[in-house]
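Checked the freezer inventory, then went back to the computational side. Two predictions to log before the end of the day. The first one is the construct we discussed on Monday; recording sequence and tokens without edits.
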Amino acid sequence: GINAEYGKQWYQRRVRGEDIDFFQHLEMHMRNESSPICGRDHLAYRSSYVPVKGVVDGDLCEVYNSLEPAKRRAVASELDRQPGEVSKKLEDMRTTYAF
């Protein structure tokens, strides 16, 4: 399984490798596009007590839907997807694993 922080709860589920890769890349792009939390680097914030390894921050990925349309298109383009596809993958992950 993979540990994934999603909706501030921990889940250990079997997730397809392509989805893991997709969400890791989305998280990386979102760290670059969104402003730092409390002025701190995102990785430093999430790793302040325990180093983060093999974890995808679902809350940060969800910020994608709050971006301006131009930024959503740019991030989706970097992921070789359409903005609607990225939003759909986020929704699918949320409904499949969060409930």
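The second is the one RB wanted added to the comparison set:
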Amino acid sequence: MMTYSIFKSFTIGTVLFVLSAPSAAFSPSSSLKVDATQRLKSDLMYRKNIQIDVRNVTSTVISTTSAQFKTNKVAAPKKAKHLVKIDFKKDLSKHLDVTLPYYSLENENAIVDDVTGECHGIICTVKRDAPIGRETGEISMFDFLRAAGCVCTTAAVLANPVKKRHHYPAEVYSVDANPAHDKWLKNEISSIANCEAFLEEASDPVFFMTCNGMTKRSAKYYGVLKTKDTIWRMKSGTFIISSSLFKRKFPPPSTQTKSLYPSANPYENLSSKLQNIKAYSSFDKDWVCMEGTLPPVTFDDCSGHFHDNPCLPHSSMIFHSCDLLGMAIGKLTGAHIPFKKRDVGQDYGLKLMSFDCTPQTLHFPKTHALKFQVKVYCSTGEIGEPGSIYIAEFSAVQKVTELVCFKATGRFVLVPPSSSGKYLINSHNVTVALI
């Protein structure tokens, strides 16, 4: 078995603001870049050194094989790409802007073209650490968006010819659930050797992400997150900022990084921390608006994000927003939607259908409190009925500075008890079917 080292050799170009213009080929490592000529030579030598004695092949085997050739007229899809196993500590840690415990990808594999050596993206499984909160299903929005940030950054690092640490703050992203996305995924992996087996054998949610449209200052991504019962498509864009420029704009604390981040994983114990929660509604109660305040965060709340400059993860903001959303829908519908560690199907919960978000301002620890607000109304079905769909408008604003951290709009379905994981969601047609 051949072992690849992703960053064995590379070329550093001229950096202007963020990075040099990317090359078309995947060049993190000379061992990964496939030389078609060399592979052909190796194949010919391999064939030359193997001698097959066909005299002992029985007529039965020959006739059976011939019959198989006659019946199997449809050729299998050509495998034009292959998977290359990569390791966070050895291959990625020197180049990513996040580190453990925030980094949540496992079983990472780069998708590499057989001929050009170009990296087309990454496929991996996702860790689920955080409580499910007021949501339902296999994965929380926190773990979804936490993994999305990690997988997009990893895909960019693999595609980036400049092997230096960069920061990739999100510019915009959208998520939507639709069973039709599974057809796109199957089509994509059909040309990748061993990719179907990877998908079938995975017991945890699988992220498949491609990086395309990379420029000096930005990158675009397209991919899917697949669980046992739902598949979400994700389209995203990030800025690309060199580490040196990021430090000049946002000077890190003078304390050493090792003393900033605890050894324990704080994301396993996320909880409902909003204070001063207030609710407003229309006269006829066809909508509810709720707001709450998150006190100034600490270094522990930002563990591993970023590498050496603590910053509250965007996924953590979404966690608190979803907590507030559950309270708002509970008030609007009268349904009891509790905060829970794990979803066992005994309570009402919310499930993501679609989400469009524009992050705007980074939020650093020991600075200001954050004011969260969510306004929600029923868009489909009867209020409080199982399967009814709700549209929510989110925002998070720094107190004192009044800088907006993010604005978003999402659609969520109200899932009744004992139905967790049994809803087939189609956000395009706005339909929810119990299966």
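For RB: The radius of gyration is 25 Å. The first strand starts at residue 81 and ends at 85. Let me know if you want it refolded.
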